[in-house]
Design goal:
Helices cover 70% and strands 0% of the residues. By secondary structure, it is mainly α. The radius of gyration is 20 Å and the shape is elongated.
């Protein structure tokens, strides 16, 4: 799967770069890598680290999830999360909540109430 994703990401990168009329060299300079590295990203030979992905997204003026769009594994997980089937680690959430001080718990509760009201309206 990783190879498929590298190729997918590389195609998305190339499409966006060309749409903006940028050269591999210009993109490379912007994120402080060689143009050969951009070539390898675009071919899917090399994977892109998370920080590089963020730099590319910022420079190419797209959200990070642009690179995941149309990738089958991403779409499957996106559908699951929208259906509410995403596996949530409630123990982790409970532990985090327990570590909040009382002021943070009040703010958190207000945020939950706000988001609940917003989702009811939308």
């Amino acid at each position: 799967m990783e190879d498929n994703f590298n190729k997918h990401l590389g195609n998305k990168l190339k499409l966006r770069r060309l749409a903006l009329g940028l050269t591999q060299t210009k993109v490379a300079k912007a994120i402080n890598v060689t143009f050969q590295q951009i070539q390898k990203y675009e071919k899917g030979t090399n994977g892109v680290s998370s920080i590089r992905l963020l730099q590319l997204a910022n420079y190419l003026k797209v959200p990070v999830n642009y690179f995941f769009e149309d990738f089958s594994e991403y779409l499957i997980n996106l559908e699951k999360s929208q259906e509410g089937h995403m596996n949530i680690n409630y123990n982790f959430l409970t532990k985090l909540y327990a570590e909040l001080n009382s002021d943070q718990k009040i703010k958190f509760t207000k945020s939950l109430q706000l988001s609940s009201n917003i989702s009811k309206v939308g």
